[in-house]
Structure formats: structure tokens, C-alpha cells
Design goal:
mainly alpha; single chain; 475 residues
């Protein structure tokens, strides 16, 4: 993506957007492997009948895999500083280093301070909105689907002999920017036990021995279902899949590892056409018991709704017709869904020893930097207007209107124009959940602070931004 500061570039951006809109108008809905190279008239439905032999599809997509990943790698390098720069004195819960610093790259000739003094329409006109703040496309936007980090794939192969490798695609972000693995697991009902996972990835192979005597029978059954693989769009038993062999499917906890997240990504199921679908980073299930909205942008009202929606629709890109073909798992709402939801509501945030009961810092335990950051959070930064203690969420959705800062454009098959309303994520334990924002476009907490400083026009100085990061690391 080209950078520049002239009005001419902005005009070119508008022209590209117009061309992009013409392109997406002719796109198919979510492309299965057999449809990926068959654009046609606008259509909300997938093609049920596969018209290309599976081996031909696999060979074609395998042959194109290197090009697909090279294109995404090039985009990431244009957007971000991907170097290994671990923070000093702070880690995730089990010791994985946090990456520090603003990683979004600036356009030539500007600084963060200069950018923050400019009005949104001025930034838009001069094409100065940092590329790393634009929507992040799926690693292969025209095909989409679930993509898992290598450490999750390797552990599931070891434990279950179930392979989540796709023949067409690999995970794109470097592992250093992802949550630690396996993540710790905490229960609201047994805080005395600390990390109940004991450093292991909880799977269908070990859940009973781990939780028998800790969870009651209905919750053991709910956990079993959360760990049971069910057919999904890319992982199923038909010839319309992205795996070499027919596949049992994916489990809820394949993405929400140990009830947290491993940063697996997907595309939202409720947007058409394909180019307009948003990449969605897996959110943590910690603290579900205090939440009132579920899904980063769908705004589902109960965890039961979320659980049932995932199985019936999200697993199949929002197409209930194709779900029937591939083996949708229809769960019993009053029994199975309830059990699964109850387990999710037991998942707790990690301990935060510097916080008081009201969620604010204890001055006797917090550093001067953290205390200054708290003052910014509750004052000049206005963060508290959406992220209220003790869990640092208002349980609402907000539209940041990022489109004020850039002209619409195509980015590796993703038509970037608007984000729309986004759920307010709880900030408790936030340092354990990189990358950030609904699509994972913000690699570090420093990026997140810089993004909101610009989008909300806060005009924080460098010291205030550093202090704010320190405060969030203590939550």
C-alpha cells in the first residue's frame, strides 16, 4: 500500500475505492475451496453442488499457497515493525514476554505528535492514516475460514491425532505477538486452585481426569461438549473442505484454548459480499459471567445465544443451507447449550494483585508510573467512559467511525471502508490477550493507546501514553 502526503494520492484512493466497489459488487458470497476461482453474480448463498474434483481443488490451492502467504507477509511488513522487542519487567501470566512499543509504521515525513494535532478530514485528505490502523484482512480474504496458530495445531495432533492444518493457508502473525500457550485457566468457583489447567492444554483426552471432583456432572458434560469437534465449513467430512483428509471438525476450545484465546482468526458470518467481511480475532472467554453482549460485533444478548449461534451458523459462514450438507450439530438448548454456557460463565480473569476490590489500583502496591496511568485512564484519556471498573467494560457497543480518517480501499481482497459498532471488551487481564481490537490489527498495548489517542483525538503526550500502557498491564 502506497504512502504519501499529497491530495493527489487521496484522489487516487477515492478512485481505487470506486474501482474496488465495482469489483466486490460482482463477488460471490463466502468462497468454498471449489468456488474460490469462480466469481459470479451477487448472491448471499454458497454453491451447494461442488463442480470441481477435490484433488484438482487441493492441487490448485496448494500451488497458490506460497503466493497467498507472501502477499500477506508483504502487507504485514509494510504495516508493522515485526521485530522481537520484549518489554522489560512485565510478562504474561505464565512468563511469556510481552512485546512493547508502537509497531504500526508511520507514513513518511510525519510523527505521532504531528499526526495527533491534525483533524480527521486533514489526515484523510493527505492519506496519512497509518496503514497498521486500517482494517486487517484475512490471510486469504476471498476464501476466508478458520486459521489456527501452529502451536495449537501441533498440540492437538500430539494429543488427539486431529490435524487443523489447512492445505491452502498458514497463520500469518508472528508467534511473539500472540497469547502464551497453553494459557492458564481460572474458575470463579475455585479461585483457591489458581491455574486449574496445570500448564496443559485441556482437550477431550484429559478434561475428565483434570476436572473430575472440581466440576459437577452437568458442567463436566458442558466442558466435554466445548472440547468435542463438530463439522465446520473448512473442516468437515465432505469434498468441500480445506484439509487433505476428511475431518471430524473443530471444537469451541480449539480457538478459545483453555477458555481463553490463542488468537485464531476467522471472518464474521453475517456480512456479504465476501470482500466486506471483517476478520475476527478470537476473544477471550474469561469474565463471560459479567458480560451482557457476546461476539465482537454481533451483539448477541446471552452466552446461550452465542453458543448456539456458533454451532448453527458461524461455523458455516452464516449459511444454514450449506451447514445441512456439511453436518451441522444441532444442540439441545435446554440441556447441552445450557451446560456449555454454564462452563463458560465459570471462566475467571487472572489474579491482579495490585487491584483493590473496586478494581482500582492499591497505592501501596502500585508504582508511580501505574498510578499516573490510572489518573490518565480516568481523566484526560476518557477511557473510563467505556471501560468502567471493576472489570473495565460498559457492556455496550460503540462505533469509532474510523472511516473519518481514510478513503475506502481494497487491501488484499478486503474492502476497507467502515468498522461499524464494536463491543467494549473487558480490560481485566488485557495484557494476556494480544493482538487487540476486533480484527487483531493492533499488535501491542502501545499500538492500542496510540490508535485511541488518534481516533478519539485525545492529544496525550508521550509520558501519558507510557503511563497508560503501564496501568493496563497491571489490570
Amino acid at each position: 500500500m502506497k504512502r504519501g502526503t499529497s491530495i493527489q494520492l487521496a484522489c487516487l484512493g477515492v478512485a481505487a475505492a470506486v474501482a474496488g466497489m465495482a469489483t466486490i459488487a460482482a463477488q460471490q458470497p463466502p468462497a468454498s475451496p471449489a468456488q474460490a476461482a469462480q466469481p459470479g453474480v451477487p448472491n448471499s448463498y454458497m454453491q451447494v453442488e461442488v463442480t470441481e474434483e477435490f484433488m484438482q481443488v487441493m492441487k490448485r490451492m496448494e500451488a497458490d499457497k506460497a503466493n497467498v502467504m507472501a502477499r500477506q507477509e508483504s502487507l504485514l511488513k509494510q504495516r508493522y515493525d515485526l521485530s522481537d522487542r520484549p518489554a522489560q519487567g512485565v510478562t504474561q501470566f505464565r512468563g511469556k514476554p510481552l512485546q512493547e512499543g508502537v509497531r504500526a509504521l508511520l507514513p513518511a515525513g510525519v510523527s505521532w505528535a504531528k499526526l495527533s494535532e491534525m483533524a480527521p478530514d486533514e489526515i484523510r485528505a493527505q492519506n496519512l492514516f497509518p496503514a497498521g490502523f486500517l482494517p486487517l484482512p484475512h490471510a486469504n480474504q476471498p476464501v476466508g475460514g478458520m486459521v489456527f496458530p501452529k502451536f495449537e495445531i501441533d498440540e492437538l495432533k500430539k494429543q488427539e491425532n486431529r490435524d487443523l492444518t489447512r492445505f491452502d493457508l498458514d497463520y500469518d502473525l508472528p508467534e511473539r505477538f500472540l497469547p502464551e500457550f497453553p494459557p492458564p485457566m481460572f474458575l470463579t468457583t475455585r479461585p483457591d486452585l489458581g491455574d486449574v489447567s496445570k500448564g496443559r492444554l485441556i482437550t477431550i483426552d484429559n478434561f475428565f481426569e483434570t476436572f473430575n471432583g472440581i466440576l459437577p456432572p452437568k458442567d463436566l458434560d458442558g466442558l466435554r461438549l466445548l472440547l468435542t469437534p463438530f463439522p465446520q465449513q473448512q473442516f468437515n467430512m465432505t469434498n468441500d473442505r480445506n484439509t487433505v483428509r476428511p475431518h471430524r471438525g473443530v471444537a469451541c476450545f480449539d480457538c478459545h484454548a483453555n477458555g481463553h484465546t490463542n488468537a485464531a482468526f476467522h471472518l464474521v458470518g453475517d456480512i456479504r459480499p465476501e470482500a466486506s467481511r471483517h476478520r475476527i480475532d478470537t476473544t477471550s472467554l474469561r469474565g463471560v459471567n459479567i458480560q451482557r453482549l457476546f461476539g465482537s460485533q454481533r451483539g448477541l444478548k446471552t452466552v446461550e445465544d452465542f453458543t448456539e449461534f456458533e454451532q448453527r451458523a458461524a461455523y458455516f459462514d452464516g449459511d444454514h443451507v450449506i451447514a445441512t450438507k456439511k453436518g451441522v450439530n444441532v444442540l439441545d438448548r435446554g440441556l447441552q447449550v445450557h451446560h456449555m454456557a454454564e462452563v463458560q460463565e465459570l471462566l475467571d480473569f487472572p489474579p491482579a494483585p495490585k487491584l483493590r476490590v473496586d478494581g482500582k489500583l492499591d497505592p501501596k502496591k502500585a508504582s508511580a508510573t501505574e498510578m499516573r496511568g490510572q489518573a490518565v485512564f480516568f481523566g484526560k484519556g476518557t477511557c473510563v467512559s467505556c471501560h468502567a471498573p471493576p472489570y473495565y467494560t460498559d457492556n455496550l457497543m460503540h462505533n469509532l467511525r474510523t472511516e473519518r480518517f481514510f478513503t475506502p480501499r481494497m487491501i488484499n481482497g478486503r474492502f476497507a471502508n467502515q468498522d461499524g459498532p464494536i463491543k467494549t471488551f473487558a480490560l481485566r487481564g488485557i495484557k494476556d490477550s494480544p493482538p487487540y481490537l476486533h480484527d487483531g490489527r493492533l499488535l501491542t498495548l502501545d499500538d492500542t493507546v496510540e490508535f485511541f489517542n488518534l481516533v478519539l483525538e485525545l492529544k496525550l503526550n508521550d509520558q501519558e501514553k507510557r503511563d497508560l500502557v503501564a496501568f493496563m498491564q497491571a489490570l
